[in-house]
Design a protein that fits this description.
The protein is α+β, with helices and mostly antiparallel strands and about 450 residues long. Helices cover about 20% and strands about 40% of the residues.
């Protein structure tokens, strides 16, 4: 039976069991294949193919959900029965915003057949290119291919289908005293350049071998895309989020100049690099949403629940688990600038490759603490100086991008495979440039 037929069958079963139930169902098939390597040798090839059926019911003011990975008649009957029982046992749901009405999607999703059917040898070729380019350094990481095909339908007559692929690689090169990392994500595996990644990672590793300590203080910084991706993800998961806005725990002031004019941020699930189905977890078609335009906060992602509470319309950003996380974008773009060399105009500052172990200390001001990773260097008189040992920072991500704080934006961008938040862990696309920022608060080293 096709996925469309399976979804229709489940809706029919619900209607026969309870004619008053509002029902929505999604049927998805995901194929995920991963090639891991360590010490420059492939040590694992794994692949998993799974089918998932998710059912949500709203009956007599109560809402519940259930899932299964079985599609036999008995399993589907059990799914409907258990979901109806869970609904009856659930409390009244005052935030229910109704089903998505019938509407069409703008695309079928971005799909590359060679990536969807990629054999281990194809991923191994990317790994080989990375290792060869690292020229003798010990390498570790992964290359992954993912394909998703999905159907959504509800009892209001709305039905949509879509599919997508993504290929990614994330790896390090090591000298024994320092690491360098490089990563990328694309729709097609053929666009993942293992040699370019290996060259970049090895160069960082070799440049970071002799490390010195740095005193705490505020420093001008050049954040490379790995660090910028963490900054942007922090803004989205904690602040630029409809649930956070509705609950009054977000920094967002719509229409206010909260960021530097160099900052423009948007989500576009319809562009050529977008991943995942072209609709959200509620079946709403994805579209472009401008979040920040020339520094002015212009929008926040909403699902049907938060949109109803805020008095607006859904933006097509519902995710499974949204009751906890809120609506989340999956195809985020930070506008590039016009600068080819951000380091050249820095009198004294830091070049930072990546952040990790970042945690929010204050959800309202988005003060984060975390560590640098995979290389950080002192900049003096427009040139890279000494490599530095791991640094700890404590910094408001909002203040770091406030008016006057962004001194430059790179012309080039990179596509990161990182997810915006755990709830968006299926597929996401985050494309960002490097940033030169006026101030970043360094509070110590790795020990605190």
């Amino acid at each position: 039976m096709t996925r469309e037929g399976l979804a229709a069958r489940i809706l029919d079963m619900v209607a026969h069991a309870n004619s008053t139930a509002e029902a929505s169902v999604s049927v998805s098939q995901e194929h995920r294949a991963l090639t891991r390597f360590a010490e420059s040798f492939i040590h694992q090839n794994v692949a998993d193919e799974s089918e998932r059926v998710a059912l949500q019911l709203h009956v007599d003011g109560r809402t519940a959900s259930a899932t299964t990975n079985q599609t036999s008649g008995e399993a589907l009957s059990a799914l409907v029965t258990s979901c109806l029982a869970a609904t009856a046992a659930s409390p009244i749901d005052p935030g229910w915003a109704g089903l998505t009405p019938r509407m069409g999607v703008h695309s079928a999703g971005n799909w590359d057949e060679a990536t969807a059917t990629a054999a281990p040898a194809a991923r191994a070729s990317v790994v080989r290119s990375f290792v060869d380019a690292a020229a003798g350094l010990a390498c570790a990481g992964y290359c992954q291919t993912v394909s998703i095909e999905a159907v959504f339908a509800n009892s209001a007559g709305h039905a949509v289908t879509g599919r997508s692929t993504q290929a990614s690689a994330d790896a390090i090169a090591r000298t024994g005293r320092s690491d360098g990392a490089a990563r990328t994500a694309a729709i097609a595996l053929s666009d993942v350049d293992g040699a370019a990644l290996g060259t970049a990672a090895a160069a960082k590793a070799r440049a970071g071998q002799e490390q010195v300590a740095l005193d705490p203080g505020r420093y001008e910084v050049v954040l490379e895309p790995g660090a910028v991706a963490d900054l942007v993800a922090g803004l989205l998961s904690q602040g630029l989020n409809g649930k956070a806005v509705v609950e009054g725990r977000s920094f967002v002031q719509l229409g206010a100049q909260q960021f530097d004019r160099a900052v423009s941020l948007w989500d576009d699930g319809t562009d050529s690099r977008a991943v995942g189905p072209p609709f959200d977890a509620e079946g709403t078609p994805k579209r472009r949403l401008d979040l920040v335009s020339d520094g002015v906060t212009t929008g926040v992602p909403h699902d049907r629940r938060t949109a109803a509470a805020y008095g607006t319309e859904t933006t097509g950003h519902a995710v499974e688990g949204g009751e906890r996380w809120g609506a989340l974008p999956a195809d985020v773009r930070l506008a590039a600038g016009s600068v080819d060399d951000l380091v050249a105009d820095v009198e004294r500052g830091l070049l930072v490759s990546d952040f990790w172990y970042t945690r929010a200390l204050d959800p309202k001001t988005l003060v984060y603490t975390g560590l640098t990773r995979n290389g950080v260097w002192l900049i003096e008189d427009g040139r890279l100086g000494s490599a530095l040992s791991t640094l700890r920072f404590t910094q408001s991500y909002v203040d770091a991008l406030q008016p006057g704080a962004v001194l430059g934006v790179s012309r080039s961008t990179e596509s990161s495979p990182r997810a915006i938040a755990p709830a968006a862990g299926g597929l996401s696309s985050l494309v960002v440039p490097s940033l030169r920022l006026a101030s970043w608060n360094i509070t110590g080293g790795a020990a605190g």
